[in-house]
Amino acid sequence: MNETYTAIVSAFLDHEPVDPEALSAALDDPDARAALVDFVRLRQDLGLASDALPASLQTLRRQPVVRTVALRWSAAAALLALVFLAGWMAPRSAGDATGVTGPPDPVRVETFTPGVDWSFR
Amino acid sequence: MNRTEVELLFATYREPVYRFLRQFLHDGPAAEDLTQEAFVRALRGPWQAGGHARAWIFQIARNLARDHLRAQARRPVVTPLTGLEGGGAADPAATLALDAALASLDIEDREVFLLKELGGLSYAEIASASGLTPDAVRSRLHRSRIALRRQLT
């Protein structure tokens, strides 16, 4: 198979400029002619294999699509921020809830007098 | 680009863009989603691809498809059942054979081939959308056709 000829018929099939003399020589070659027919058949098969336009493409949507991946990353970032915020707030909120800002007041005072024998009998 | 211009672009190119994405990704729902996304991005993005509207919208779609495939590579593989969904009029066995042949192509070759065959772009437009030269597009298309022909006949 002469690939120069098949390259010419390939470009011709695509409506690209080709040299008429080169095209004439290519079309004289049986292999190049057979290749041209196969290329046309390939184009036809590909067209037949294509799906019909889906209903979702009847109109252009208004809002940009939020991509799934971007959404997942955003959700992960938001969750992380929430965890940090909760960790930062938790000790304060526990203290604020009871109104305690320092150590508790004593309810009983024990006095230890020097010189007293503290041993139990 | 304003909404009216993009609406016009959508009406004109949604079908070839969807078909390109559907075949390139082998994933109908993703193709639907990315088709919408491509046109929504056209509303916000700067005008590119040398001022060719068709090349520009396919450039956006192609970039979205590449991003999608990169993301897919990090997830478990799901084998598509293309051709068994009753979409086209082709023989399911032939469709599966065609899908397998397309899947065997190098990703850049497949992209260029589908931009031509389903997108209907010229070599210059494909070059603009893919960042290749028109000669490279011509060469890749020829190579793809030869490879597909070899596999399918």
Question: Explain this structure to me?
Answer:
The complex is a heterodimer of chains A (121) and B (153). By secondary structure, chain A is mainly α. Chain A has four helices and no strands. Chain A has a domain of 47 residues. The longest helix of chain A has 31 residues. Chain A starts with a helix and ends in a 23-residue tail after the last helix. Chain B has 153 residues and is mostly helical. Chain B is built from seven helices and no strands. Chain B starts with a helix and ends with a helix. The relative contact order of chain B is 0.13. Classes of the chains: A mainly alpha (121), B mainly alpha (153).
Count of discrete domains of chain B? 1
Summed up, the helix count of chain B is 7
The beta-strand count of chain B equals 0
- Write down the oligomeric state: heterodimer
Largest interface: A-B, 31 and 45 residues
* CATH fold label of chain B: Butyryl-CoA Dehydrogenase, subunit A, domain 3
Low-confidence regions of chain B: none
What characterizes the major β-sheet of chain B? none
Q: Summary?
A:
With 121 residues, chain A is mainly alpha-helical.
Task: Write a concise keyword list for the protein shown above.
heterodimer; A: 121 residues; mainly alpha; B: 153 residues; Butyryl-CoA Dehydrogenase, subunit A, domain 3; globular
Compile the SSE list and pairings:
The complex is a heterodimer of chains A (121) and B (153).
Chain A lengths: L2 H11 L6 H9 L1 H20 L18 H31 L23
Helix pairs in contact in A: 1-2, 1-3
Chain B lengths: L2 H23 L2 H17 L8 H20 L19 H12 L3 H11 L5 H8 L3 H19 L1
